[in-house]
Design a protein that fits this description.
The structure is a homodimer of 324-residue chains. With 324 residues, chain A is mainly alpha-helical. Chain A has helices at 5-21, 29-35, 42-52, 62-82, 94-98, 100-117, 123-152, 158-184, 188-215, 218-221, 227-230, 236-244, 247-256, 265-277, 280-300, 306-319, and strands spanning 87-88, 91-92. Chain A has one domain (2-319): Farnesyl Diphosphate Synthase (Orthogonal Bundle), CATH 1.10.600. Helices cover 74% and strands 1% of the residues of chain A. In chain A, helix 3 packs across helix 8 (158-184). The first copy, chain A, starts with a helix and ends in a 5-residue tail after the last helix.
Chain lengths: 324, 324
């Protein structure tokens, strides 16, 4: 998104300076590696905008922006080990490049680094930042655990799925905004509205991500097309399809999702044709729009700079429209 | 140690109440499992005594005691995955019992929990506690990384080994005392002396641990006798032996430490006989005593309750004399 460019540039410069300051060692090489892969920098942007919304300079929130991005990337490093995912943003995952042990340990260091990065804020800002990061971190772990548990379960309700993605994805978006707003000096009520805005657009964003995997353009997504189908991931699309399926379709879906054939072509085609016949893409779109709308209503309620609010509205639209 | 009993009892009650408060879930079951294995509770004791030393009630430091113990156990959970260690305190390691993914994730949650446990302290205490925990945590990761790197190296200097164990083991003992002292209201200088006391007895403690592995009583150690020799661990004993060895002994040691035979009996016997002929146990003992002495001189310099100081002196002696 063009209007985010100056924020992301400022963030990348800050990132570079902090990464340079880390010792040359096998512990921090993987940290530099993943932090330099071209992420979308959504969380940093949210942190910086969350601060600017209340009259602070967006640069005041650079440590918040970096802390949430490092934290996010720590979860990617560890999740990729757990999910056995070899590719991340079109490049080798950390555990493939550096081995599992180094990936576990560097991930640990990244998590602790997130706290370290915040240390120069004054006490009255530092304390609430640490508390938001901590609460969010525990939520993320709970979300990842649910995600793993769902793999072992034949049926997962759409409600449970939405709670899982809220924890695994959305609350860190909410936290990024909230932490930025704390640096900017926002009151409790505004902090909370911003958090809710981030949370709801996060859910919309994840539903969109599920759709990207199935209907997206291969190259831009940077991972294997239909990876979720190949890996029997219980996404919204799959769960909605199961809900709408007739007996035949249901047994086809359950059977395909009970194993992983070495050549997944037939599986992908059959599942896609069921998805299409049940128009689950349309349902997903509707749900995504509903969450987007809910999120925006919270942003609307915030007492903040109107230009920045417009930018955040645009960012929300951008997040759920990219690359389809 | 008999005189620590009331502290440990109080700690265990607090631990129990906090563990009960965690949700019943696959994320927190491994946390309860490892936190309930019978650890020595050295770090909690240090935290509580560090507080009492300055006139605070030792119970005021219970959250510190729990935070450092949870943090310590998080490192054990992850280290056991990296080191492929199946047994911990005589029981299955977390990753053996719950699988690698759950062990990675529950370890992550434990690290974040350590921060969460501190949240009820007032800002002016909370802030320095978080900073000590964070700095220490990064040091622990660096120590574990060095330890793993040493596995790939043929020669490691004793100096580098001592830096490694300082980071991997000792600084958390120092941090436990320091964090307790912060709760107790200690001044900067006393905090620093206490930290140094903990650091030096930690180094002595680790040298003692190296000796326990080789010369200890199997049942009490709770892990396989001579596991360090079997796993080619470059402990102080091994590095000192290499330093003192003649050409023949050196090549024997290097050759035995270059692989891991399925039946290690001969290897153990040969290595032990070299250790004995070079009296490395004596050298280790001397070094251990030197660090103990250095640590105690820092404790002596602290302006605190003399009875508690005596208890800490006794604890230091106990730590490097147990179970040999």
């Amino acid at each position: 998104m063009q209007s985010l460019k100056p924020y992301i540039e400022s963030f990348n410069n800050f990132l570079k300076s902090i990464m340079k300051g880390l010792p040359e060692s096998t512990l921090y090489d993987p940290v530099r590696y993943i932090m330099n892969t071209p992420g979308k920098r959504i969380r940093p942007s949210l942190g910086m905008l969350g601060c600017e919304l209340f009259g602070g300079s967006s640069d005041d929130a650079l440590p918040v922006a970096l802390a949430v991005e490092v934290f996010h990337n720590f979860t990617l490093v560890h999740d990729d080990i757990m999910d056995d995912a070899d590719i991340r943003r079109g490049k080798e995952s950390v555990h493939v490049k550096y081995g599992n042990s180094n990936a576990i340990l560097s991930g640990d260091a990244m998590m602790i680094l997130s706290y370290d990065i915040l240390k120069n804020y004054q006490d009255k800002v530092f304390t609430p930042l640490v508390k938001v990061l901590t609460e969010t971190g525990l939520g993320l772990c709970e979300g990842q655990q649910s995600d793993m548990n769902f793999e072992e379960m034949e049926y997962v309700s759409i409600e449970d799925y939405l709670i899982m993605i809220e924890k695994k994805t959305s609350i860190l978006l909410g936290a990024s905004l909230k932490m930025g707003s704390i640096v900017g000096g926002a009151g409790q009520e505004d902090q909370e509205h911003l958090y809710q805005f981030g949370k709801y657009i996060g859910i919309a964003f994840q539903i969109h991500d599920d759709m990207l995997d199935v209907f997206g353009d291969d190259q831009k997504v940077g991972k294997i097309r239909c990876g979720d189908i190949i890996n029997n991931k219980k996404t919204y699309l799959y769960l909605k399809a199961l809900e709408l399926a007739d007996a035949d379709q249901k047994s086809t879906l359950l059977s395909y999702y009970s194993h992983a054939p070495s050549d997944p072509t037939e599986k992908i085609n059959k599942v896609l044709s069921i998805f299409k016949s049940l128009v689950v893409e349309e349902y997903a779109n509707q749900l995504k729009e509903a969450y987007l709308h809910l999120g925006k209503s919270h942003l609307q309620a915030v007492n903040g700079n109107e230009n920045v609010k417009t930018l955040l509205m645009d960012l929300a639209d951008y997040l759920i429209a990219r690359d389809l």
